[in-house]
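Supplementary Note 3. Input sequence used for the single-chain structure prediction.
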Amino acid sequence: MEENKTNGRDEIYSAKVKAGKRTYFFDVKSTRSNDFYLTITESKKRFKEDGFTYEKHKIFLYKEDFNKFMEALTNTVNHVKQELLPDVDFDQFDQIHAHQDHNHEEAESATPVVKASGDSELKWD
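The predicted structure, written as discrete structure tokens, is reproduced below.
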């Protein structure tokens, strides 16, 4: 019965990147035949009258395309950094994100999470 929820696809590894109002999830999953693929999910929180919802867009990336994808992504980012924005110090963004992540971790550890037994929670971490 549990297998029906995942269609036989088990999550192997997951990483999360918070980027402003968006969050990106990089998940490695396996198929029933023990093959692996990557899903990249962009999640945006949308507010509605009765609460909020998450708008998600997903990309599936298969092993035969990993190298081509990484090459295209690296070349594109390098083009922007070197050709279009050569005067920008991109290392400054790492420092800003490290500071924000540290503040977010402190806030999470100071805020207790109360959960009633039997409630389920979707966890991306």
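The two ends are 24 Å apart (CA to CA). Strands lie at 10-19, 22-30, 36-48, 51-62.
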